[in-house]
Design a protein that fits this description.
The complex is a heterodimer of chains A (237) and B (165). Chain A has 237 residues and is α+β, with helices and mostly antiparallel strands. In chain A, 22% of the residues lie in helices and 27% in strands. In chain A, the strands form three sheets. A five-stranded mixed beta sheet of chain A has the order 4-9-10-7-6. In chain A, strands 1-2-3-8 form a four-stranded antiparallel beta sheet, sandwiched between helices. In chain A, a hairpin with a 7-residue loop joins strand 6 and strand 7. Chain A is elongated. The longest helix of chain B has 28 residues. Classes of the chains: A alpha+beta (237), B mainly alpha (165).
């Protein structure tokens, strides 16, 4: 407090400042937690734009046919509060489609939305599907070319598959309670190029609750088997 | 880490404590303030391309935190009618903040508290404070004057008592 203050006020403002400077503040939360929370806002904003079917300036450079997938409440694990699942799909002019997955999602609705974006897919929760012989690697074919363009891009973690050596594994930490500080610290984001998918194949997307992982792989349409499991082959990471 | 993220990380590291202190003093609750400030920093990250150009990014964070708190307060007030004294008494313990100061601040109208936070705690000048709040500089002076008068009335007896001890 300075120039335009009444001289009589200085003791009071000093008192105020002194009190505040003595405040014992808890340590900073991890930056990753703040960024995770910030991503929630970005996603909501993007979903809002997509829901309107308007992408503003982005429309000039990309045919952004957005589809925001925000579903009803899904039961949280245990007896905790109800948790809402969500995903966002966005098509780009080059034919690629970005998919952001967060928290629990409705597999049937995601599968329908992917179909609307020209992506043949089989989406399961708690089930692993594979073809024998295995379909080609989606990474090698360029079906999963990398992180998506545009604002709100999140990191894409893909590591070579294990088990059958064909798929990719993506780890995601799902929140147990919506009230946790960082519900979106590690969302899954991927880009799918449907044009690179060979004929008679489809994309398998499986979520496994036990170790909270999402597996993405190619399988042959009509020639695959699925087995219920809470953990994909290869065991816990 | 991108350059934007690096800039944000630097801002976050340097600004967390002062922003949290300012908001805690204004809300009277360290617990609430911590959550509100975390929320404000998260929003700052999400809009960093704009916030980084703000003349006083810390003020943006504090304002956003206070607005987030106001929304939460409206939600809470529908459930339980708490008084500012309740908040101060409940949450000042263990924060190191003088309860008398906290209570006095909490008794101020919201706009006066905002002026105190920006003008005194963040040390913004009158014109900048006015721009942040979207009001005229004269209005800032009026709010400041009323707030100081009210605080003097609340705190003077306590200060006198301390001196007399």
């Amino acid at each position: 407090m300075n120039h335009d203050e009444h001289p009589d006020d200085s003791a009071l403002t000093a008192e105020l400042l002194g009190s505040v400077s003595e405040l014992t503040v808890p340590g900073r939360p991890p930056l990753a937690a703040i960024i995770g929370r910030g991503r929630v806002h970005q996603r909501r904003r993007l979903a809002g734009f997509a829901g309107l079917g308007v992408t503003g300036a982005a429309a000039a450079i990309a045919l952004a046919l957005g589809l925001a997938g925000v579903f009803g409440a899904a039961p949280a694990r245990g007896t905790g509060p109800v948790q809402t699942g969500a995903f966002t799909l966005t098509s780009y002019a080059n034919g690629n489609v970005s998919l952001n997955l967060s928290q629990l999602f409705d597999p049937a609705a995601l599968q329908r939305a992917l179909a609307q974006h020209g992506i043949r897919a089989l989406v399961k929760i708690g089930a692993y599907c594979s073809s024998s012989p295995a379909a080609p690697s989606p990474i090698r074919l360029g079906v999963l070319p990398g992180a998506g363009p545009g604002p709100g891009r999140t990191h894409h973690r893909a590591t070579p598959g294990r088990g059958n050596g064909q798929g990719i594994w993506q780890s995601v930490t799902l929140p147990v309670k919506p009230s946790q500080l960082a519900p979106m610290v590690d969302p899954v984001s991927m880009v799918i190029n449907p044009a690179a998918m060979p004929a008679r194949t489809e994309l398998f997307i499986g979520y496994f609750d036990l170790d909270q992982r999402i597996v993405v792989d190619l399988i042959y349409t009509g020639s695959h088997t699925c087995s219920n499991t809470q953990q994909p082959p290869g065991g816990p990471r | 880490m991108s350059q934007d993220d690096a800039e944000f990380a630097e801002f976050f590291a340097a600004s967390w404590d002062p922003c949290l202190r300012a908001v805690a003093a204004s809300t009277g609750s360290m617990t609430l303030a911590e959550d509100q400030v975390a929320e404000a920093f998260a929003r700052a990250w999400a809009s960093w391309h704009k916030v980084s150009l703000h003349p006083v990014p810390r003020a943006w964070v504090v304002r956003t935190a206070l607005n987030a708190g106001a929304s939460a307060w409206h939600r809470r007030s529908k459930e339980t009618a708490l008084t500012s004294q309740d908040i101060a008494a409940a949450d000042s313990r263990g924060t190191g903040l003088d309860t008398a100061v906290l209570t006095a601040l909490c008794r101020l109208p919201a706009r006066q508290r905002e002026v105190i936070v920006l003008r005194v705690f963040l040390d913004l000048d009158i014109d900048t404070t006015a721009r942040q709040l979207g009001i005229a500089p004269g209005t800032v002076r009026a709010h400041l004057s009323r707030a100081i008068t009210a605080l003097r009335g609340e705190l003077a007896p306590a200060m006198t008592a301390e001196i007399g001890r």
